[in-house]
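Write out this protein's structure.
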Amino acid sequence: MTSPADPDADSALMSSGLKRRALIGAGTIAMIAAIVLRFVATSPLWLDEALSVHIATGQMGLGDALRQDGHPGLYYVLLDDWTTIFGTGDHAVRALSGVLGVLTLPVLWLATRRYGRPTTICTLLLAATSPYLIRYSTETRMYALVVFLVAAAWWLVDSAWRRPTAARLVGVSVVTAALVHTHYWTFYLVAAGLVLVAAAGWRKPADQRRTARSILVAAAAGAATFIVWVPVFVDQLAHTGTPWAKRARPTEVFVETLQGIGGNNRFEGETLGILLAFFALLGALAVGVAQDRTIEIRSTIAASMRPWAAITVGALGLGAATAIVTGGAFEARYAGIAVPFVLLMAGRGVAVLSPTARVVALSLLVVLGLAISADEARRTRSQGQEVATAINARVAANDLILFCPDQVGPATVHYLDEAAAATARRAFPSGDGQTVDWRDYLDQVASVDPVEFANQADHDAGSGSIWFVSGVGYRGIDYSCGVINGQLAAVRTSEAVVGLQELFEGMYATRYSPR
């Protein structure tokens, strides 16, 4: 036994206090770094980001524009309002996602705080430093909004289940409406959530059945607002899809989800993805906190984690099964409908470790997440700005800018100056490079003769030069672009202007001089 006057006891208390303050300081630094990284991206906008800006701020009506693009409209409405205030610069348009990414963190804290302080802290740090969440906080796309709404729906439904006040039920309706108007994969989350709530109220006391019915009615009312978008949705189902990708396979869905959660498909990202999956499994199966350095694991999922494991498997499983059956594609970004729940289970998996092991594991995950995010932030995703800069420097009023495929157009057009933007533009198979018309896309490609397309471009350019902008790796269209390039080279003198780089969206530009 030691008394308060014992020097060894005082030293131990001081050491414990210093360790606690050091951990708090390290956690604070990690949180600040994670928030900063949500607003750091050195790359120019790539195709999907430029498309988002052009659709949100373009002259075409939103319904008509999205009939060609294949998404719901809420994000584009928000982006339009955002750009009206902050402009269309790269940092400005990406900041909307950054703000949503930051707002997601306190919402996750509210959703997870009833699982105990260790689990809440671990989940919050994992979410803050998640390369997945940071990546989509730096992109002008709707995925940061999806994750924010998923976290908000989780918190509101959980709160309404415990105390179904009118305000909470209205919140459930509003957030459900926002989800279904943001991305179509949220349909699978809403469906899984409705089944979960119905099952939770099945054969339960009358008050719980009433609560379940109230939540179901509130969510259904929010989902019913989608009726205003049904005509566009039906048209999209008939004519747009994922022509840029092949049919998803079960193993592909699993592997891409792991890579996405880890931040990339390189060694570091796959390692982090596997570690997070391991801790999520541990969090789902662990009975409680480690005792005497031993963790008790059962074959059944812990009661507190069952709803979130069920909704993760249900939502992703339903979405993946639909993609496989219908021949659709799967991209890791679609997993945003379940990432908050995976992070909760991973946070619990870390929290059940002994204190020392918990600090070590959490430090490893946090440092690895920040390192991957910082590395991704410095990577160039597109050569669109580089190509546009080269065109801006030398383009003449009577020149023709030619994009093949049209998918290299938006990220280039976005950076053309006023004079270059006024130059005649044409894209294969259709359009002028400002947007991409995905309606019956492969049929469009097949219907246009690339030789005739090249000959017509040569004729229309006349005494002007042709700026041919292209890339490689575009499914179903590379051959046509090669034919167009070859046909132009046969009748005009070529000059390489920008060389192709091995980037996510690499491009090259060739200037064909007048004949």
